[in-house]
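I hope you will forgive my troubling you with a question about protein structure. Could you please explain, in whatever detail you think fit, how the structure tokens follow from the sequence? Thank you for your consideration; the sequence and its tokens are set out here.
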Amino acid sequence: MKVLLWIAVFFFVFWLMRKLRKSGEKTHVPVEQPAESMVSCDYCGVNLPLGESILARGKYYCSSAHLQARESGDVCEESSVSKDRKGE
């Protein structure tokens, strides 16, 4: 009978220590990040965060390939379709 009492005391102390240790820990509060401005690629029209875009000659691009394509004079067919829809 005494053995069961000591086992119960041991588990109670163990449980109490864990509870006190958890209450002493500071909870992690996530810091809110401010929303980043979105820009549109001048070549294909895709929207992307300002920080991920490439700025060249006052226009934003989603990749260096689209910047090079625009500089070489290529026209993105998807871009012309989306611009036509904007005019409707």
Summary: The longest helix spans residues 2-24. The chain has a mean pLDDT of 83. Helices lie at 2-24, 64-71, 77-87. The longest strand covers residues 38-40.
